[in-house]
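re: ur question from earlier - yeah i can do the single chain one, its not a big deal. heres the input i used so u can compare w yours
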Amino acid sequence: MVVTSPFNGRVVPLEDVDDEVFSERVMGDGVAVRPASGEVVAPLSGRIEKLFEGGHGLAIEDDDGLQVLVHIGLETVKLKGDGFTVHATEGDFVGTGDLIVTVDLDRMDELGIDLVSPVVVISGHDVSNHASGQVASGDRLFDAG
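and the output i got, formated as C-alpha cells:
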C-alpha cells in the first residue's frame, strides 16, 4: 500500500524529529514532512479513526487494517485548536487527497511552533521505500504492508 504525503513540503527522516516518541519510532515507522502549505489531506483512503481535539492530528485506517497517524507539528496539542480549521469529522470515510485540516502557517510562525509533521504507521505494518527531498501533496511518502 502506498502512503502519500498529506502536505506539500520537505521530507524529514524520523530520526531527525525533535521528539523521542517519533525519532525513536515508539509510535511506529514512517517519515516526517516540514509543510510548505497549510492544507492537510488524507494520505490514504479509509475511515478517520481519530481526529485529535483541536485538529493537530489524525489517524486513518484503510480496509486492510493499515493505520496511519499524521501529527501536525510538535507541541501543537497545547494550542487547543488555535491556527487549525477542521474540515472533517471522526468517523468520516475519506479518499486519498481529501482535505481534512487547514493550518494557518503564519499563526504557527507567530507562536514559534515547529511544524515538522510525523506521518507514521501505527498498526505494526512494515514500512519501506521512504521518499526524500521535496514532495507535493499526494506524492508517495513510503510503502506499507
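Residues 44 and 122 are 14 Å apart (CA to CA). not sure if urs matches, ping me
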